[in-house]
Amino acid sequence: MTEPGPAHQGPAHQGPAQPGPGQPGSWPSGPGGLPVRPGGTPYGEAGAARRLSPRVLLIDPIRMLPTLLLPLAGVLVAGGFSPASFGWAALGVGGSVVYAVVRWSTFTYRVSGDRLELTRALISRSVRTIPLERVRGIDITTPPLHRLLRLAVLKLDTGAGGGEQEGELDALTVEDAESLRAVLLARRPVTPRHRTEDSAAPEGTALGAPARDGVALDGAAGDSAVRDGAARDGAVPARGAATGRTSGHHDERIIGRVPRSWLRYGPLSGAYLLTPFALIAGAVGLAFQVGGELRVDARTARVAFTWVEGHPALLVAGVVLLILAMPVVGGIMYAVFNWDFTLRTRDGYLVAERGLVTRRTVSLERRRIRGYELVDGLIERRFKVVRLWAVVTGLGDSETRGQLLPVTPRTYAVDVASDAIGPFAIPLRPHPSQARRRRLFRAVTPWLVVAAAMFLLGWEVAASAALVLALLGIPLGLDRYRSLGHAYDGTRLSVRNGSLRRGQAVVERRAVVGWTLRQTVFQRMSGVLTVVAGVGAGTGGYSAIDTGETQGVEFAAEVTPDWIGPFLAPPTR
Amino acid sequence: MSRRAIALWLVESLIGFAIFFGGALLLAFWIGRSDWAVLPGWLSDHAWLLPLVVGVVMAPLVIIEPLWRYAVHRWELSGDVVYARSGWLSREWVFVPVSRIQTVDKAQGWFERALRLATVEIRTASHAGSSTIKGLDYDVAAGFAEELARRAQELRDDAT
Question: Does the keyword field hold Signal (chain B) (predicted)?
Fold first, then answer.
């Protein structure tokens, strides 16, 4: 939303801004033009416009350094170490500093009523308005440099999809970020009545929020969702009183804190295992880039390669080292990212905090959480550990944002999930034996076909490799079958599938928006079908694969009897 | 479904057949011409069999598929739940309660316009809970979409 204002408007606004750092409140915009004492509570119904922390100016030039480096090097190479080239270099650095200062001084944010306004007046004036109603999650990160200066980056997840639509405040002081979060999230205790009126207001007035059909309905969802959330919140403290602690005026409670000793489970998940390769690739890329500058061409590279080829022992040692480094480096990366993982509830939000170097805090609105997903790989299952994700409606980047627990023992993760979201304790119903046959067939046959084709073409080595894979398909298929299952406990349904990455989804009944039953020719011959519960959250659909024909229909009918009941005759026939 | 839907599916399966048959012809031509050593001799010598087999196998399906689809495809709105059945070799049943519908679209492609048919697309917050009903008579589709939109407005109770 850009309103191309008159050209003189920019300078006119910058004039009073000159008092600069230390007096962030002197912004002459409307009712919010009141000076603000640092440390006061600046956000009211019509809060004052505020600037980002001036300390970010120390970071900006450092961040710009890489982009400046090449031109600077170019200038030095072209002009030698003459005063002129130093002058140019100084100009470049000075220019970037001035740019950073101007950008900082022309960017303001403020909370006004029920919306957050981000104003940019660098060249054209643009105001992005984010209705607080739309804020689905808040993500506070502190990268290393920011941490040094006690700054934090605050990101708003508005569910609009796409980075452009999301608000980012880079950077606030940690205290400001915390208090802004408190303000943004404190809008929650709204009575259902009020909320419905809110959502009845035309969405089109909200700048920056595209008017979608779904958006209007999102608001309406609040009515029932809030009631449910309140009921759940009421139930939770009773449970948590023993395990958690309540702090201060916030309704805050720690649900889970992952002990450091559990970081050793990290490599089991296979996460970051490829980091050494990524590092190598990055190094090679960098070498080529720098090499281009230093006039290292393909010929030199070829010479290097032939030299390496001449020393096979070195090559083998390198590869072995790389493979040995995989779990170690992977484990370290995992530990760095998941250090002191803490999950707590705070005012109707689930807040997950993690990280050693970059401390990341993600707040998920509880009333948008529809369920959770427990994921474990082949090795993880052996050690009885799982990872936990929340199934949230309209959450962008849910792989990182939705994570509720890193690799933790299963019993612990299940406890946390039932405390944070809701329990699901009944066992899953197994699928019929035809499903086992089909899993086996699908795991083995493709490789058998490949093996046969390779034999026909006379490639014995490839054929034997395919044969080995076919043999490995037997345990894989059996395991896939063992994973299959579905159940419904009255409020939540659960489906599970997968082997190398097994996932069990637990989703609330009210999140189901429809059912799809599928049956391929082969499934029909085996008398099984796949039931997909359409859910407006997470991956969109959770399927129970290869349920028995009546079993599958009964599952859908059990969860939503009034939807399936009238049609029970046609699909079973 | 309208009876004219059979014509629509016939056109579509003809196009599919043409693409497949043409692809097989091209492949056979390419295999026959190339003397790629990895391929055994018997394969490149009898490459002309490929389009023949494809043609013989698929030609009857061009006729069978539309008729079969006509026999399978059904839709119904009752008890404020949309039920749609589709497919021919594989089947798909979709149940979408009207209360969870977010948008109802009515679309018409070229052939559909020529045949006075329309497609009703029912969208919910999830792709797995969304349904596309093809081959409806235009007037029926218009009325159906209208009614769905009206009911969806009345029943809107959505937790997503």
Answer: no
CA distance B154 to chain A (A): 12
Chain B residues with beta carbon closer than 8 angstroms to that of A516: 92-95, 128-129
* Nearest-CB residue to A513 (from B83, B89, B125): B125
- Kindly give the confidence (pLDDT) of every residue in chain A, 573 residues in length, as a single tens digit, with 9 standing for 90 and above: 333 433 333 333 333 333 333 333 333 333 333 333 344 444 444 567 788 888 888 887 777 777 777 767 776 666 666 777 777 778 877 888 888 888 888 888 888 777 888 888 777 777 878 777 777 778 888 888 888 888 888 888 776 554 555 678 887 888 888 888 878 776 554 433 333 333 333 333 333 333 333 333 333 333 333 323 333 333 333 333 333 333 344 577 888 888 888 888 888 877 777 777 777 787 777 776 666 666 656 677 777 777 777 777 888 888 888 888 888 888 888 888 888 899 988 877 888 888 888 888 888 888 888 899 999 888 888 888 899 998 888 766 666 778 888 889 999 999 999 888 888 888 889 999 989 999 999 999 999 999 998 888 878 888 899 999 999 999 999 999 999 999 998 889 999 988 888 999 999 888 888 889 999 989 988 889 999 998 877 778 888 999 988 888 889 888 888 888 777 764 444
Pick the residue of B121, B132, B155, B160 with the most A CBs within 10 A to test the interface with A by mutation: B160
HSE at residue A166, side-chain half, CA atoms within 13 A, is: 21
Domain residue extents for chain A: 2-135+156-233, 264-338, 433-481
d(CA A472, CA A475): 6
- This model of the complex carries an ipTM of 0.85
Nearest residue of chain A to residue B94 (CA atoms): A516
CA distance B94 to A556: 11
Please tell me which of the candidates B79, B89, B158 has its beta carbon nearest to residue A566.
B79
Q: In what order do the strands lie in the sheet with A349-354?
A: A167-173, A151-157, A137-142, A359-365, A349-354, A342-346, A252-257
pTM: 0.69
Q: Flag if B40 and A457 touch (Cβ within 8 Å).
A: yes
Q: Considering only CB atoms, which chain B residues are within 8 Å of A195? A: none
What is the rounded distance in angstroms from the CA atom of residue A534 to the CA atom of residue A516?
A: 7
Query: Taking CB atoms and an 8 Å cutoff, what residues of chain A touch B90?
Result: 518-521, 523-524
Which CATH code of 2.30.29.210, 3.30.420.40, 3.30.70.1230, 1.25.40.10 fits the domain covering B73-155? 2.30.29.210
Residues of B in contact with A562 (CB under 8 A): 79, 81
